């Protein structure tokens, strides 16, 4: 069952369809209310499955890239997606019949309005980049690593500060304290999430934000680097900052296995 329902109807229909000693596998968000007697008479087995597959919600798999051995886990989150893309590439899975609306990227807001409007009866809404019509759409593409937030000249009578890591400790302690200090200015905020870096930068008046912390080391306007990232990243980031000639403040611990 890959449905989404607030009623037990899909579950009870699945139970009616199942043969004796059959299996019901719940993938979607459905209300599970099975008649005990029917489950008992058929000896039905009930299984729960995470929608993306093994690896979902496991930070060592999703964030640190530690894969599960093939011999122990055949279909992981990533292998499921690879297989899906393979089937799409071989046209064994047809996506075109699911697409009900097309919009150029510039009309993105209109596309979202369509999704939210029940009267549109949208199923899949496709946003199309202009480059998609080019023969080699990725040629010449350069990802933007730094986004300017406030365009102002550096105050060189101040210390320029760069922040690596945009978690709760930075938001609750370091950045509010830095904002109170009259002789420092926040030049850059780093986060692996671009949206988070920009949100933090706007909130605390940073000049720019970035998803690449090496950009902070290369910035001549930054004198001090505050490292508030995950513990296992402290030591290499601190060494890189020192080698770039920056003053460094590292949250504890300075290194971690």
Task: Note down, in words, how this protein is organized.
The protein has 257 residues and is an alpha/beta fold. The chain has three domains: 9-89, no CATH class; 96-130, no CATH class; 146-250, Rossmann fold. The chain is built from nine helices and ten strands. It has a six-stranded mixed sheet with strand order 5-8-7-6-9-10, sandwiched between helices. It has a two-stranded parallel ribbon with strand order 1-2. Helix 7 (194-204) links the parallel strand 7 (184-190) and strand 8. The model has no long low-confidence stretch (mean pLDDT 89).
C-alpha termini separation: 42 Å
What number of structural domains do the residues give?
3
* CATH homologous superfamily identity of the largest domain: NAD(P)-binding Rossmann-like Domain
**Individual helix count:** 9
Number of strands: 10
Topology pattern, helix = H, strand = E: HEHEHHEHEEEHEHEHEHE
Integer-rounded radius of gyration = 26 Å
Helix content: 25-40%
CATH architecture of the largest domain: 3-Layer(aba) Sandwich
List keywords for this structure.
alpha/beta, 257 residues, six-stranded mixed β-sheet, 18% strand
Brief summary of the model shown:
The protein has 257 residues and is of the alpha/beta class. It folds into three domains: 81 residues, no CATH class; 35 residues, no CATH class; 105 residues, NAD(P)-binding Rossmann-like Domain (Rossmann fold, 3-Layer(aba) Sandwich). It has nine helices and ten strands.
